[in-house]
Amino acid sequence: MNSIFLGIISGIIFGLLSVLLMLPMKFEDKRIAIIGSFINRFTIGFLLSVTVLPMYGWTGDL
After folding, report:
1. Helix/strand/coil (H/E/C) assignment for every residue in the chain
2. Cβ 43 vs Cβ 11: under 8 Å
3. Residue 59, pLDDT score
4. Residues 6+ apart with CB under 8 A from 32
5. Would the N or C end of the chain have less CB density within 10 A of its end CB?
6. How far apart are CA 52 and CA 30, in angstroms?
Protein backbone atom coordinates (compact mmCIF):
# COMPACT_ATOMS: atom_id res chain seq x y z
CA MET A 1 0.00 0.00 0.00
CA ASN A 2 1.24 3.46 -0.88
CA SER A 3 2.42 5.41 2.19
CA ILE A 4 0.49 8.53 1.17
CA PHE A 5 -2.74 6.56 0.79
CA LEU A 6 -2.11 4.87 4.14
CA GLY A 7 -1.44 8.29 5.68
CA ILE A 8 -4.73 9.68 4.39
CA ILE A 9 -6.69 6.69 5.66
CA SER A 10 -5.04 6.73 9.10
CA GLY A 11 -5.43 10.53 9.32
CA ILE A 12 -9.15 10.30 8.56
CA ILE A 13 -9.67 7.53 11.10
CA PHE A 14 -7.68 9.36 13.78
CA GLY A 15 -9.48 12.64 13.02
CA LEU A 16 -12.94 11.08 13.12
CA LEU A 17 -12.16 9.38 16.41
CA SER A 18 -11.17 12.74 17.86
CA VAL A 19 -14.34 14.38 16.55
CA LEU A 20 -16.54 11.62 17.97
CA LEU A 21 -14.95 12.06 21.40
CA MET A 22 -15.57 15.83 21.27
CA LEU A 23 -19.25 15.71 20.26
CA PRO A 24 -20.70 15.47 23.80
CA MET A 25 -18.52 18.35 25.06
CA LYS A 26 -19.71 21.96 25.22
CA PHE A 27 -17.75 24.82 23.62
CA GLU A 28 -18.49 28.43 22.76
CA ASP A 29 -17.93 27.72 19.07
CA LYS A 30 -18.29 23.96 18.73
CA ARG A 31 -17.93 23.93 14.94
CA ILE A 32 -14.51 25.61 15.00
CA ALA A 33 -13.32 23.40 17.87
CA ILE A 34 -14.29 20.21 16.02
CA ILE A 35 -12.74 21.37 12.73
CA GLY A 36 -9.52 22.31 14.54
CA SER A 37 -9.40 18.98 16.32
CA PHE A 38 -9.97 17.05 13.09
CA ILE A 39 -7.25 18.95 11.22
CA ASN A 40 -4.81 18.50 14.09
CA ARG A 41 -5.40 14.75 14.41
CA PHE A 42 -5.51 14.22 10.64
CA THR A 43 -2.11 15.86 10.32
CA ILE A 44 -0.64 13.72 13.09
CA GLY A 45 -2.01 10.50 11.56
CA PHE A 46 -0.83 11.48 8.09
CA LEU A 47 2.68 12.45 9.17
CA LEU A 48 3.14 9.31 11.28
CA SER A 49 2.46 7.17 8.22
CA VAL A 50 4.48 9.18 5.69
CA THR A 51 7.57 10.18 7.67
CA VAL A 52 10.61 7.93 7.34
CA LEU A 53 13.16 8.47 10.08
CA PRO A 54 16.72 7.28 9.50
CA MET A 55 18.00 4.65 11.91
CA TYR A 56 21.64 4.79 12.91
CA GLY A 57 23.90 2.18 14.44
CA TRP A 58 22.31 -0.52 16.57
CA THR A 59 18.80 0.98 16.22
CA GLY A 60 18.61 -0.16 12.58
CA ASP A 61 18.90 -3.81 13.67
CA LEU A 62 15.72 -3.78 15.76
Report:
1. CCHHHHHHHHHHHHHHHHHHHHCCCCCCCHHHHHHHHHHHHHHHHHHHHHCCCCCCHHHHHC
2. yes
3. 66
4. none
5. C
6. 35
